[in-house]
Amino acid sequence: MRCKHCGGNYKTRELVCPYCETENIIGKLWHVQRSKAELEYEEARKEAGKRISIYVLDRVLSRILLVCVLAMILSVVGVGVFFAAEEAYYYIYQKTNAKEIEATLKDYYDKGEYDELHQYMQKYQLFDREKRYVYSQAALMEFNYDEFLDGKMVLAQLPSEQLREKEYYVSAVLNYSVKVYRNDVGVYEKIAPENEALLKKRQEEVVAFWRGICKITPQEEAMLCGEEFVSYEYKKQLVKDVITRLEASKEGVE
Amino acid sequence: MIKTEKKPTTLGIVLKSIGVLIAVVLFLSIGAFIIENVTDEYNYDNDLGRMVNACDGYYYERKYGNLREYMTLYELYDKEFDMYWEIVEGYGDYIDYGMYKSAYETGYEEYYDEVMEFAEKVKDNAKNCKFDKNRETLQKFVMDIEE
Questions:
Q1: Of residues A58, A64, A157, nearest to B13 (C-beta)
Q2: CB spacing of A156 vs B98 below 8 angstroms
Q3: Quick one: how far is CA A82 from the chain centroid?
Q4: Cα dihedral A136, A138, A141, A147 in deg (nearest 10)
């Protein structure tokens, strides 16, 4: 701008003319407005500083939520794909190795290796009511029988003072013995003629277990052997009675 | 046009935090489940040492029933476990002998043949023992039934 006093040329922001030192009203006004603007800016900045943390927190939470949801979707899809691929593998395996599968099943069955039969059928999902009823039934019978054997052996090793504390073992072994006797194998319950001898043999073993180890009475035996539903209360009482008898017989041996 | 961001409310932040917490817990649970299953399925070899140790624990405590339970649960039928199966089967025959004998002594005379059969089995198990570590225990079973 040009000084009104000396005609010198200087910047509008200057407070005085650099040549004649005459006061510049426009420059003073500019400085006042600038100071006011700086104060306002400072106040606004402080206010924004207070608010900024809530925006940042909101954004961080949104990102975490998004990442977690995406990761979960990916995991679920991944698991689904994995199981679908597994199913497809077993389906293809069954289709392409049909003869080999039947030969293996027959081999295990004929040799009486029912445990291996159960594992093989479970591994390749070969249970089938239509095509493999006999093998499926024998394999499931083996599952119950195996649990019964486990329970029988654990029961035999338990010292008499631990019997009451570990009542569930007695309960479990009695349950499985009934399952073996009654051939409780779900949809494969109707005994196949080929498995009749196997069932009979196992029933005899279960009865010997009831008589020899559990010392159950003929009335209790008739109840367990029959087709009548064995109630929870009856089983509970039977477990208590069996424990008392086991304690007596074990203490006699010890 | 300037895009303005809506100011988040305290309630929104609280709800979002709960959502994040649930999502993180779910994500970690799913992750842990997948990792556990995959490692269980494919890291059998790494677990072999641990399983042999567990079997050893039951073996030295003479808990042959638990040993059988453990081996059937984890399907341990490899040759590393033959020694444990030998004692488990020997113990099974010994238990069956006791079971039939007890039934016979209770008055069920029809079990005489089974008593004899399992007595023979217990003796055979000791005679045909393949693992030296089992020999003493199998012999004890024989001594016990001969008493």
A1: A58
A2: yes
A3: 16
A4: -100
Give the orientation angle of helix A98-111 with respect to helix A114-123, to 10 degrees: 150
Q: What are phi and psi of A16, to 5 degrees?
A: -130, 160
DSSP code at position A216:
-
Alpha helix positions (H), A8-132: 25-96, 98-111, 114-123
* Chain A, nearest residue to B32 by Cα: A75
- Predicted ipTM beyond 0.95: no
Tens digits of per-residue pLDDT, B88-119?
999 999 999 999 999 999 899 999 999 999 99
Q: Rounded to whole angstroms, how far apart are CA atoms A215 and A89? A: 50
Q: Which of B116, B87, B90, B120 shows the shortest CA–CA distance to B101? A: B116
Cα A21 vs. chain centroid, distance in angstroms?
88
- Greatest pairwise CA separation for chain B in angstroms: 102
| Segment A158-183, tens digit of pLDDT | 888 888 888 888 999 999 999 999 99
